[in-house]
Amino acid sequence: MSNPATVIITGASSGVGLYATEALVRRGWHVVMACRDVNKAASAAESLGLSAEQVSPMQIDLGSLASVRSFVVAVAQQKITFDALVCNAAIYLPRLQEPQRSPEGFEISVATNHLGHFLLANLLLEPLRNSRRSPPRLITLGTVTANSEEFGGKVPIPAPANLGDLQGLEDGFQAPIAMIDGKAFKAGKAYKDSKLCNMIMSREMHRRYHDSTGIVFNTLYPGCVADTALFRETPKAFQKIFPWFQKNITKGYVSQSLAGERVAQAVADPGFETSGVHWSWGNRQKAGREAFSQPLSNQATDPSRGQRLWALSERLVGLR
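The chain above was modelled as a monomer; its predicted structure follows.
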């Protein structure tokens, strides 16, 4: 296909990102696989029968703001035009007792999942706006565990997502500060908080830029993909029990392939052109169920909180 539509997907070397790559290639798209390990990305693509003409692995480490900026420079230098950006990459390190730090000194889950994507999205906003395809889309992976409107967002292990008054960010988010709310470090909560930030920032981008750019800004929860590499740092017993529990008890389990297909729908399909939506297929999976707009918590949708998180994030990543 000449001049296919092109999408950049972060974290495309495994899991949902990899299978979203496959689903979009099937739709005729070219995928820029933005990953930490380009050799792993190339091997993963080859394992699914994807050719070098269909995918382009490119190096990025979302945990490093310098790496994000280098990636954006490389996109410009290679004159890559693209029509969608998928912010998918995430790390989850629930067993940490002490925070790991990014090169800039930020707690690594928030640095990777939120701040890296926040910087990337802002730096790529103008080239995305110039997409040849209408409307261009910026799609972000959310999670049920960060949405207190749903049962999964109320689970107190180790605590529900809660950004407090953003005091940790206000105070610079450097050691000894490791949590957005400025309180004691809880590794699992740091992940949930970072994903709540993702959903807040998507809503804020919609408010700021949809009308002027035409870009569609959405989040989605594709279902519980309980057996991806996201859980590689959990105990081995959890890695066996959790998928079984989701398949047989909660009925929330979806395969990596189905989750990738759902991401591809949000990126490419005509029914997903409304901006400012959090797409969901429900927490108990039912055959043939269509996507619907899932309400988000007040934490995720409050405009004043979104504006303040935006301003603090801008300061931390060096956009102002």
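DSSP finds ten helices and eight strands in the chain.
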